[in-house]
Automatic annotation (TrEMBL):
Cross-referenced Pfam families: Dynamin_N (PF00350), OPA1_C (PF19434)
Gene Ontology terms describing biological process: apoptotic process; endocytosis; intracellular distribution of mitochondria; mitochondrial fission; mitochondrial fusion; peroxisome fission
Organism listed in the record: Danaus chrysippus
Location(s) in or outside the cell: Mitochondrion inner membrane; Mitochondrion intermembrane space
GO MF: GTP binding; GTPase activity; lipid binding; microtubule binding
Domain of life of the source: Eukaryota
Entry EC number(s): 3.6.5.5
Entry keywords, A to Z: Apoptosis, Coiled coil, Disulfide bond, GTP-binding, Hydrolase, Lipid-binding, Membrane, Mitochondrion, Mitochondrion inner membrane, Nucleotide-binding, Transit peptide, Transmembrane, Transmembrane helix
One of the record's GO cellular component terms: microtubule
Protein name: Dynamin-like GTPase OPA1, mitochondrial
Main location: mitochondrion
Top enzyme category: hydrolase
Residues in Dynamin-type G domain copies: 267-543
Length: 967
């Protein structure tokens, strides 16, 4: 068979040598063997085989290229992702962009330095000792880090050879050794060695942390010094006009200030750190350690914090403090400024608890800026007490509890619960309160203070470990911290307290024995943890609060458009300013009142205030003195004139003696006494009343005024008029004018005479109407009125009517009754069955006599209307109308007084009243409670809410924009 195949192969080779050769070569290259009966491949075949091998190698290299390229791309993406995660984990250093100058400023700064160097020359030299000290410190730090690195490598090598698995850390608080290995050491020796290494590493970590903090403080101090030198170099240059950019925390604090009145509603739920704890637990000390300054006063065994204190911490080049409502900055590096700051805080707290209160809900807002300070807002509340003392208000304990709950009930508030470590945990009052407000502990941070005293007093340090693990108290928390805030000395500085804290924790059993983790101690770690939690909560909730205020604004604007469609949205301050402007414009119109109008009003006011004195003090006493019954005809001394019936009153016998000389003399004396003692003062009061009425009428005549302004105007005008005092010298001027007017007894014209008669008739009619009303009240309704109006008299009124009837029958004309006349009236009444005493009769006689006297005086005034001719012919000697002359004298004095008062008002008093009005308006503008009382109603409240919501929304949007830029 093989022979046949060989033969056929030879024949095919002879027939088609080219095709066969090609196939044979390909087979040979592929297999490495000859197709011609396993013959050796010719010499040119191996060369081709080597070429193919090279091609295959090149192809493999190309594959490796793609693998390398793909791995590089994937690794780059992974590295980029790791870098992004690492970058997000770094602290926010965006504030450096605002603090450090840009390239142009650096160029100008370097140019200025070079120029200064050329000018100064060798005068400005760096101290070589500082340079050498810096180099030595850097070399020392470098050697120390190298030594630590070598020790760590050696320890790792020993661990790798002796212990197989790494130690497991449980809860960052307690370390457990690895399981037993196959080495020659026993389990006890391995555990002891492991614990020893852990203690050594913990001490090194604490020392490294303390050294890092000191280096950081040194760098901060050097930074402050460099900035001061920079400012000294820049003295004499034009200051830059670039506005300082507000920090995020300042913007956030201003939003909280706007929400100060909304603490109890859904609004005002923005995050803040609420510092709560028992009294004297160390709340204020923790806050001072975070703020790095002793800014609060100390109480010697008594309550110190009496009102909430909102402290805004932020970064800044200098360590300063400032109150929200004050422009003064307190330098916290100066002890004098610190003392002034503590006095100011104490003064504000005492002012907030006036009126017998012990604590107040009024917030004292202040800001503290400084290098390295964490950015957050803290509210220090009064400490929770368990017992009230006798010098406290009755509701102090409950008021503190309610205030603390109100702040902690905010779902976005971070509760910084302070617990005194030097006392028994069972004595704590605040832990149960915190647990009731935050049962899950999602926003609570627990702080154990005075750990140094706790370590000295506690026999079982494991109790502190249980507290910091959250296993002793029923409350839960996000984190647990242990701090030392002093050694019970008031004069210790923050730096000395911090150094003492670091030394204590380096040598403390708590840390050496693994009871406390490194991240749970020192106030610096506490402040960093609280600030991180604060900003995380701010970023999570600020968008929701902005949306809530946007919806609130939409609802309020819709209500305004539907309720007050054609009115502007004026808040309380704007409404007050509008009312103030209108009131001052109306006050200026007082000077435009015509003189006749002023004199008419003043005359009316003068008569209103003096007519009682004219009648009761001058006219009636003078008329009573002028009556004289001596020498009266016998007919006039009869008790009754026969009229045919005892029931009808007797007719008065009119002709009787009237001594006109006595009347005129008495009138002269009484008018002069009145002018010297009372008239000027009464005139000033009448002028004030006229000014008041004219001002009020001006307000009432305003047509375009808004009714909402009226309460403000009325209150301001009343207060200004009450304060307004007439000039003292005006009273003396009026007295002189009035005395001169009353001394004149000569009526010069018929017009003056008629005016005096009209005044007399009007006055007599008013007085008689008043007397008749008094008589009607005494004696009851008359016969006609009883029948027509179905009224009846009382028993007392019936008795008075009987006495009046008997007195009118008596016919006496004297102001007072004689004894025999009283007896005669009493006997006549007894015979008619009416029993009265003498005093009762005399009391009834006064209005009866006055009524009849005024009736006769009216008749005489009517008769005197046409007597001016006779009076003028006798040159004033006519005595029958002396009463008219008296009224003319009074009228002339009042007219002269009115003219003088009008001049005083126009020249002086209107301007002085306007000045008083401006002062009252200024005081009202500074009193928000009074404005709230005077300007009330839904219109004002809705405008106020709209204004506040808009302000808060704008500040929130500004803050969110800045926050997104910082991200």
């Amino acid at each position: 068979m093989s022979r046949i195949l060989n033969h056929r192969m030879r024949m095919s080779l002879k027939k088609t040598p080219s095709i066969v050769d090609q196939r044979a070569v390909a087979f040979t290259i592929w297999t490495g063997r000859s197709v011609l009966f396993n013959r050796p491949v010719p010499n040119h075949i191996p060369r081709r085989q080597y070429g193919m091998l090279i091609a295959r190698a090149v192809r493999g290299v190309l594959k490796i290229r793609y693998l390398v390229l793909g791995g590089a791309v994937g690794g780059g993406m992974t590295l980029n992702k790791k870098y992004s995660e690492w970058k997000d984990g770094l602290p926010d250093m965006g504030w450096l962009n605002d603090m450090l100058p840009d390239n142009d400023q650096w160029d100008r700064f370097t140019t200025t330095l070079i120029t200064a160097k050329d000018r100064i020359g060798d005068q400005l030299q760096i101290d070589p000792r500082l340079r050498e000290a810096g180099r030595a410190r850097a070399a020392e730090l470098r050697d120390w880090l190298s030594q630590r690195y070598e020790d760590a490598v050696a320890a790792a090598a020993v661990n790798n050879t002796s212990i197989e698995p790494a130690p497991k850390i449980v809860n960052n608080l307690q370390s457990k050794p690895a399981p037993q290995t196959a080495s020659a050491r026993t389990a006890a020796e391995e555990a002891a060695a492991y614990e020893k290494r852990v203690h050594v590493l913990q001490e090194e970590v604490l020392a490294l942390q303390a050294r890092y903090q000191r280096e950081l403080q040194r760098l901060e101090q050097e930074n402050r010094e460099l900035r001061q030198q920079n400012m000294l170099l820049r003295q004499g240059r034009q200051p830059t006009t670039k506005k300082m950019k507000r920090s995020l925390i300042d913007m956030y604090s201003s939003v909280l200030d706007e929400l100060a009145g909304w603490e109890s509603g859904e609004a005002g739920r923005l995050p803040r750190v609420v510092v709560v704890g028992d009294q004297s637990a160390g709340k204020t000390s923790v806050l001072e350690m975070i703020a790095q300054a002793r800014i609060f006063p100390r109480g010697a065994g008594e309550m110190c914090t009496r009102a909430p204190v909102k402290v805004t911490l932020s970064e800044g080049p200098y360590h300063v403090a400032q109150f929200r409502d004050s422009s003064r900055e307190f330098d916290l590096n100066k002890e004098s400024d610190l003392a002034d700051l503590r006095k100011e805080v104490e003064l504000r707290m005492r002012n907030s608890v006036r009126g017998g209160r012990t604590v107040s809900s009024d917030v004292i807002a202040m800001s503290v800026r400084g290098p390295g300070l964490p950015r957050m807002v803290l509210v220090d509340l009064p400490g929770v007490i368990s017992t009230q003392t006798v010098d406290m208000a009755a509701d102090t304990r409950e008021a503190i509890k309610q205030m603390t709950k109100q702040y902690m009930d905010n779902p976005n508030a971070i509760i910084l619960c302070i617990q005194d470590g030097s006392v028994d945990a069972e004595r704590s009052n605040v832990t149960d309160l915190v647990a009731s407000c935050d049962p899950q502990g999602k926003r609570t941070i627990f702080v154990l203070t005075k750990v140094d005293l706790a370590e000295e007093n506690l026999a079982n340090p494991n109790r502190i470990r249980r507290i910091l693990e959250g296993k002793l108290f029923p409350m839960k928390a996000l984190g647990y911290y242990a701090v030392v805030t002093g050694r019970s000395r008031k004069d210790d500085s923050i730096q000395s307290i911090r150094e003492y804290e670091e030394r204590f924790f380096r040598s403390s059993k708590l840390f050496k024995e693994g009871l406390v983790a490194a991240g749970q101690v020192t106030t610096r770690n506490l402040s960093l943890g609280v600030a991180d939690c604060f900003w995380r909560m701010v970023r999570d909730t600020v968008e929701q609060q902005a949306d809530a205020f946007k919806a609130m604004r939409f609802n309020l604007e819709t209500e305004w458009k539907n309720t007050f469609p054609r009115q502007r949205e004026l808040d309380r301050d704007e409404l007050f300013e509008r009312a103030r402007a209108e009131l001052l414009d109306q006050s200026a119109e007082l000077s435009a009142v015509p003189p006749p109008a002023w004199e008419q009003r003043l005359t009316a006011e003068l008569w209103t205030s003096t007519h009682e004195k004219v009648f009761g003090g001058i006219y009636l006493p003078a008329a009573a003195l002028a009556h004289d019954d001596v020498g009266r005809p016998k007919a006039t001394q009869l008790k009754y004139k026969q009229t045919g019936s005892d029931r009808n009153p007797a007719i008065w016998i009119d002709p009787y003696d009237f001594d006109y000389n006595k009347f005129n003399t008495s009138v002269d004396i009484k008018l002069r006494e009145w002018a010297e003692s009372e008239l000027a003062k009464q005139s000033i009061q009448a002028g004030r009343d006229a000014l008041r009425e004219e001002f009020i009428e001006l307000l009432a005549r305003s047509q375009d005024t808004d009714p909402i302004y009226e309460p403000v105007k009325r209150a301001a005008v009343e207060e200004a008029l009450n304060r307004h005092q007439w000039e003292e010298r005006a009273q003396d001027v009026l007295r002189v004018l009035q005395l001169n007017a009353l001394q004149d007894r000569c009526v010069r014209s018929r017009g003056e005479w008629d005016a005096a008669v009209a005044l007399m008739e009007t006055a007599l009619k008013e007085k008689r109407d008043e007397v008749q009303r008094e008589l009607r009240d005494m004696t009851g309704p008359g016969f006609r009125e009883r029948w027509l109006r179905w009224t009846s008299t009382t028993e007392e009124q019936h008795r008075r009517a009987e006495v009046r009837t008997e007195l009118e029958r008596l016919g006496s004309c004297r102001p007072s009754l004689a004894y025999d006349e009283v007896v005669a009236v009493r006997d006549n009444l007894r015979r008619r069955g009416v029993e009265v005493d003498n005093e009762y009769i005399r009391e009834t006689w006064k209005p009866v006599y006055l009524n009849n006297f005024l009736s006769r005086a009216q008749s005489r005034a009517n008769d005197c209307k046409k007597s001016f001719y006779l009076y003028s012919q006798q040159n004033g000697a006519e005595k029958e109308c002396c009463e008219v002359v008296m009224f003319w004298r009074v009228q002339a004095a009042l007219r002269t007084t009115a003219n003088a008062l009008r001049q005083q008002i126009s020249n002086r008093e209107a301007a002085r009243l306007d000045r008083d009005l401006r002062e009252v308006l200024d005081e009202m503008a500074a009193d928000p409670e009074l404005k709230k009382k005077l300007l009330s109603g839904r219109r004002v409240e809705l405008a106020e809410e709209l204004k506040r919501v808009r302000q808060v929304q704008e500040k929130l949007e500004e803050f969110i924009e800045a926050l997104n830029k910082e991200k």
